[in-house]
Design a protein that fits this description.
Layout (H helix, E strand, L loop, with lengths): L9 H6 L5 E3 L8 H9 L4 E4 L5 H14 L4 E6 L5 H10 L4 E5 L7 H6 L3 E6 L2 H10 L3 E5 L5 E2 L7 H9 L6 E4 L5 H9 L4 E4 L1 H4 L8 H9 L5 E4 L6 E4 L2 H11 L4 H8 L3 H7 L23 H20 L2
Parallel strand pairs: 1-9, 2-3, 3-4, 4-5, 5-6, 6-8, 8-9
Antiparallel strand pairs: 7-11, 10-11
Length: about 325
């Protein structure tokens, strides 16, 4: 369990960071500017390699290293092409922390750890948490279905998932999904997490590489404006827009998996989140977007979360 006075947790010790806040490695949002800003603020910044060609990742790692002297890592979704090339660059450039997701953790964990790299895997269930632990990862991110982007099929909420995973694993646990405030961070840690991973809140930061129109769309989102869909392909939580409505129409007409694949096409997420097409693009964001009302520097987001975390501890202590 965490220590209230010093905020030392198994996660701060594992990564050598000040605050147990990890910025999620989100496609089209998590470049070197965001990762370095979060690391400089005392959290752990992650470069999101899922939207990068190998040489683009190389550039982002090099720029991030020049921009911060503090630990940072790379998130690698295993569902994307060129994963071997991405891993080769990570090893070549001496990155010390890798988060993997959307795939089998056995594929790369052993080889990465042999290179002295700390490995964390993202899961959406107890079953996959145990498989990741057996594969030898150093920590687990357990992500509830409130989270944005690609998600689990079981629709287990963070409030249920964290204590369930905590009861079964021995390695450090990071909570994700619906966490954008210090109060949510405190709740997750009371449930057994050693730290939190934050995605959607950092999309609405100055340093995020996502398009400004997408950031504004996040600020406008209200309760019920996101939905987990496309489970036949890879479950993804999206803001409702024209593309989302087209998907729902396809379902209503009994679309096959092949027809849904054709509708999704290629680079749909890039088109929306990075290029700013708010109608035809895929807009991945979490339910917690309804609580985000301002674009801020990443450092202010970290500071605000920690301040609210500390004040919430005091309030809870007086109950």
């Amino acid at each position: 369990m965490f220590t209230f006075k010093t905020m030392n947790t198994r996660i701060t010790e594992l990564f050598g960071i000040e605050h147990p806040i990890i910025q999620a490695g989100m496609v089209w949002a998590s470049g070197w500017r965001l990762a370095s800003a979060v690391s400089n603020a005392g959290g752990l910044g992650l470069i999101g390699a899922g939207s990068m060609y190998p040489e683009v990742l190389r550039e982002h790692i090099q720029k991030c290293r020049r921009a911060t002297e503090f630990p940072f890592g790379v998130n690698v979704p295993l569902m994307y092409p060129d994963v071997d090339k991405l891993m080769d660059i990570i090893v070549e450039l001496g990155v010390k922390i890798v988060f993997t997701s959307a795939g089998n953790p056995k594929t790369y964990t052993s080889s990465l750890k042999q290179k002295g790299i700390t490995v964390v895997h993202v899961v959406s269930s107890v079953k996959f948490a145990l498989k990741a632990q057996d594969a030898g990862v150093d920590a687990i991110v357990a992500e509830g279905f409130e989270a944005g982007g690609h998600n689990g099929r079981d629709e287990t909420t963070t409030l249920t998932l964290i204590p369930s995973v905590k009861a079964k694993i021995k390695i450090p646990l990071i909570a994700a999904g619906g966490i954008a405030t210090g109060r949510a961070m405190l709740a997750a840690m009371v449930l057994g997490a050693d730290g939190v991973q934050v995605g959607s809140r950092f999309v609405a930061s100055h340093e995020a590489s996502s398009h400004e129109l997408f950031k504004q769309k996040v600020l406008e989102a209200g309760e019920g404006d996101t939905h987990l869909t496309l489970k036949e392909l890879a479950p993804v939580r999206l803001l409702k827009n024209k593309f989302y409505n087209d998907v729902q129409q396809a379902y209503a007409h009994g679309a096959t998996t092949e027809e849904l694949t054709d509708l999704l096409g290629r680079a749909r997420a890039k088109r929306g989140m990075f290029e700013g097409d708010m109608d035809e693009g895929e807009l991945e964001i979490g339910q917690v977007s309804a609580l985000i009302h301002e674009i801020k520097p990443a450092a202010d987001i970290v500071a605000d979360m920690m301040a609210e975390f500390k004040s919430a501890k005091v309030e809870v202590g007086t109950l």
